[in-house]
Amino acid sequence: MKNKTINLKQILKNKNTKFLITTHEDPDFDGVGSALALAIQLNFLGFETKVWLVDALIENFDFLPTRSHIYREIPENFDYDVLMVVDASDITRVKKHALLAKNKLIINIDHHGDNSNFGKINIVQKDTSSTGEIIYELFRQMEWKITKDIAINLYTAICFDTGQFKYSNVTALTFLAAADLVTKGAAPDYISQKIFENNSLELFDILKKALDNLKINSKLKYVYSTLPECSAQNSHEVLNFIRSLKEAEIILLFKLNEEGEIKINLRSKNDFDVAKFAALFGGGGHRKAAGIKIKGELEHIKQTVIARLNAELTK
User: Fold this and answer.
1) Tens-of-pLDDT digits for all 315 residues of the chain?
2) CA-based angle 116:131:238, to the nearest 5?
3) Which residues, in sequence order, are bridge partners of residue 58?
4) Scanning 189, 211, 252, 261, which has the fewest C-beta atoms within 10 Å of its C-beta?
């Protein structure tokens, strides 16, 4: 990372530089926590910095420090020089990306295995648990002080993307980063409760529908379900619950998004590479967690995807 921070240090020499920070559509705690941590630090250093998210956040995000500083509309009369994109494998995963990136220097900070290195500066570490962990290391390399507010945001990012430190993306370095963030003010019990034990009645209704629609292939060890439109956070909670099923070594969740597209979330608990499978349909992600977004009729897409999954698992 040292070579990559040299380029960042050059940019920071111009104190008139303005930053706009954003993340992928349907933002999650890794993207939002990472963006807020960077914004806090850049503002502290004297740079005019704003965080923009086109998609609304559910109430679960309210505990994040400086969350109120997020803009839902692109800030008017803010002629920023640098667009920082965090936790997105490609610029196309950011809504209004063509408008946002026009004539701007792009800094890409991410941990996805299929990142396209779309930035002028790419701080990409594909074997790291989360974007939050990468930014924690960036703080160390830049010798920036980690305040309590920054610690809470970064711990939240890491905790979320590691599933409370139980996924295969966790390393010894992940635990060292988390431990340091705890010493700087992040409270693990409080943050875990806010992320994972703060669900609405709406989620339970969605979970019931997901279980009613659940299909299980015990022989090939995969399960899938279908949902009406729901938030990315609710989808994540549904997936977390379904993955606890013994037969669920591969999980697929089909749902409609706001644009009428079919979004498919995939998870793997074995050696099956869901990112490689998702790429067959124009999707991508991590080996253990990936996504597909595709236009078409739900039942037809479902049949097509499941048929291909059967073929891949019986090769």
Assistant:
1) 767 788 899 999 999 999 999 999 889 999 999 999 999 999 999 999 999 998 877 778 999 999 888 998 888 889 999 999 999 999 999 989 999 999 999 999 999 988 999 999 999 999 899 999 999 999 999 999 999 999 999 999 999 999 999 998 999 999 999 999 999 999 999 999 999 888 888 889 989 999 999 999 999 999 999 987 766 667 878 888 998 998 899 999 998 876 778 999 999 999 999 999 999 999 988 889 999 999 989 999 999 999 999 999 998
2) 100
3) none
4) 189
Q: Which residues contact 118 (CB under 8 A, 6 or more apart)?
A: 85, 90, 91, 106, 108
DSSP state for residue 205 in the 8-state scheme: H
Please answer whether residues 223 and 216 qualify as being in contact, where contact means their C-beta atoms are separated by less than 8 angstroms.
yes
Residue 177: which H helix or E strand, with range?
Answer: helix 172-183
User: Is 170 in the same domain as 216?
Assistant: no
Q: For the chain, what is the total number of helices (H) and then of strands (E)?
A: 11, 12
| CA–CA separation, 127 and 170 (whole Å) | 9
Distance between CA atoms of residues 113 and 174, nearest Å: 17
- Distance of alpha carbon 188 from its chain centroid, rounded? 20
Q: How many CB atoms lie within 10 A of CB 90?
A: 18
* Amino acid at position 69, single letter: H
**Residue 176 sits in the same domain as residue 51:** yes
**Together in a domain, 148 and 69:** yes
- Residue 276's domain spans which residues? 201-313
